[in-house]
Amino acid sequence: MSRANKGREDPSDLSAMEVAGLSLFDLYKPYPWAKAVPEASAASFEDQAVSQFFERYVMYPSNDGSSPGFLEYLPVLFEEVNVERRLALRWAVRAAAYANLSSDHSLGALKSKALHCYGLALSALAESLADTRTSPDDYILMTVVVLDLFEAMYLHDSVSAGSHAQGMAQILRLRGPNQIYGARGWSLFRLSHHRLQKQQLAFKLGPLPESEDWLDSLNEELPDVRLERDNFQINEICERARNLRKYINQTDLPIERTIEIVKEMHTLDRTTTTWRDNPKWAYKTIPRSDITQDTQIASRFPEYIQLHHDVWIAYEWNYHRTARIILHEHLLECLDRLENLSSVGQKTFQTDLDSLKQASIAIVQGLVDDVLSTVPQSLGDVDHEGNLLEEAARTQKCKGVGGYFLLWPIKISKRTHSATRQQRFAAQCIFERIRECTGMKSAFGDLSSI
Fold it and tell me: Which of 25, 142, 315, 346 would bridge 405 by S-S if both were Cys, CB 3.0 to 4.6 A apart?
């Protein structure tokens, strides 16, 4: 049913004007095994828009355990929201679905409807959170996750600016320690905590004190738990670097002690490179000449291309690389400030300063190259075996979740001062392509030019 409550108007439903020029049969094809679908059996515009959004953004766990899935419980939760207190999730999903649909059909009315549903979802979410009689349920937490995705994909940073990061943290606190005892609860915790840790890195926030207790209650032998622990530890290292920068400005910390701390953090960073030294994280690197001998096509690819088991594994590698880029940018800021604050006569330490700066710059440039090398697979130019794919063969996932996974690593890469001019230019071009292929540009124009 496309209506939230039978016999009652749903403000997120599409009007005839908003779908003018669209045909039900131009949208998502829900029955690919059928030659034709009678109009009476065709799903509504609303349902087809949601189905297409799920097709592009939901990933189910892989049979071999390499990928834990992404938003895998969202379709089930969405189907269960036809009651008053759960409308926030319905409207959040429809906001994302209409924005996604508008990218394929360039309809201004769909863009406006997406923003309208976004507002409806925010209002309904606030109303649900105001009820303190019960702890936030799965529907509320998933609503925040979907709104966060919508903001990341379609709204300018200055509009959202990690607005749901602190809300997500508070919801996790309110849900308490028992939230992980159930497959769905664990999946939602993993998904939201992972996103929360990314937001902390992106907006220079320290890790939550509660995170350590939450992670201590989990079985670290599981790869997904180990991943969250590793991300927490690298957040802590970045927080140390930010605090060091403050100490340099606000205290008389001796230059030799400061350099010693920076060296310690370089050592910690080298340790993080061993965290994924196992078969689960293995990938293959090939030269672009192995993909194609056509020089015109080859020119669109980086010199080397990484092939991962799937786009989730590529994303997790890029998450780790991006966190390390942020760390070394913090360390370079510390070294620059130290150099500016130190007297000219402190030549004793200049060799150390130069060596540490050169090391961090080289690491950043290598990491940016690694991020860029994952783009062809993430955006569906090649499959996981390195076969060149034609446009028609590119999966919906690469148009949706592949671009979403690349968004943060590419944003950081194109802004990183230590990257080469060529790297920043390549990252900017890729960012424009992400805006194109995910519909950010056609749906919201300059609002998505982050």
Answer: 315
Q: What is the pLDDT of residue 137?
A: 92
Q: In b/e form, how buried is each residue of 294-318, taking b as 16+ CB within 10 angstroms?
A: eeeebeebbeebbbbbbbbbbbbbb
Average pLDDT (384-399) is 74
- Alpha-carbon torsion (131, 134, 135, 139), positive or negative: negative
Measured distance CA(182)–CA(173) in Å, rounded:
17
Q: Which residues are within 8 A (CB) of 426 and not within 5 positions of it... i.e. 6 or more apart?
A: 302, 372
Among candidates 144, 229, 224, which has minimal Cα distance to 192? 144
pLDDT greater at residue 246 or residue 193: 193
Maximum separation of any 2 CA atoms in the chain, in Å: 84
**Interatomic CA distance for residues 316 and 300, integer angstroms:** 24
DSSP assignment of 49-102: HHHHHHHHH-BPPPTTSS---BSTTHHHHHHT--SGGGHHHHHHHHHHHHHHHH
For the record, the structure tokens of 192 come out as: 């939201």
Nearest CA to 376 out of 292, 448, 279, 268 is that of: 292
Q: Which of 106, 96, 204, 105 is nearest to 144 (CA)?
A: 96
Burial 351-367 (b: 16+ CB within 10 A, else e): ebbeebbebbbebbbeb
CA distance 111 to 236: 39
The residue written with tokens 């209409």 in the block is 98
d(CA 402, CA 308): 13
What tokens were used for 208? 């939550």
The end-to-end CA distance of the chain, in Å, is: 37
pLDDT band at 439 (very low <50, low <70, confident <90, very high): low
H or E element: which one contains 359?
helix 350-373
The torsion angle over the Cα atoms of residues 221, 222, 223 and 229, rounded to 10 degrees, is -70
Write out the two tokens for 322: 């991006």
**3-state DSSP percent of the chain in helix, strand and coil, to 5:** 65, 5, 30
Token readout for 68 is 């834990």
Pick the closest to residue 190 from 232, 129, 158, 159 (CA basis). Answer: 232
Three-class SS of residue 278? coil
Please state the separation of Cα 347 from the chain's center in Å.
44
Dihedrals phi, psi of 62, to nearest 5 degrees: -80, 150
